[in-house]
Design brief:
Length: about 140
């Protein structure tokens, strides 16, 4: 209790209240300023969202070109394009928004998973549903601005 009294800067009303309620009152104003990312992304994060979307589109265009090569060489080419796309996504995973970072990493992970699947020379093209879902999640998070 002596330590708490010293931390209150002489505010006796705060010291009389339980520690949980006095600590949460000052923390509440700082919490929204620390995590407004879903409600309004900063300019750098919005720029990153736009760049990530552009890079995803470019990667998928390269994948589509590689798919036209056909097996067996096409499998390696498609795998390489997904790997390149995933690597590019990781360059966008360092913003001020944890939600955007996680969504970008999800897209990169799905691209990596597809690269691994294509590297095993599947008999038929693997589903892109998880990649589509990850991309949609990224778009949703980025649209929260």
């Amino acid at each position: 209790m002596i330590v708490m009294s010293g931390c209150t800067d002489g505010d006796d009303t705060t010291a009389a209240e339980p520690a949980g309620s006095s600590a949460s009152a000052p923390a509440t104003p700082s919490a929204p300023s620390a995590s407004p990312t879903p409600a309004g992304l900063d300019a750098a994060t919005r720029t990153t969202c736009a760049a990530a979307d552009k890079d995803i589109t470019a990667a998928l265009k390269e994948v589509a070109s590689a798919e036209k090569i056909g097996p067996p060489a096409g499998h390696s080419a498609v795998s390489a394009q997904y790997s390149a796309g995933a690597a590019t996504m990781y360059t966008h995973a360092f913003t001020g928004s944890d939600e955007v970072n996680a969504a970008v990493k999800d897209v990169a992970t799905e691209m990596s998973d597809l690269a691994d699947t294509w590297a095993k020379a599947p008999k038929k093209a693997p589903s892109k549903a998880d990649l589509t879902a990850a991309r949609d999640k990224l778009k949703t998070v980025c649209a929260a601005a």
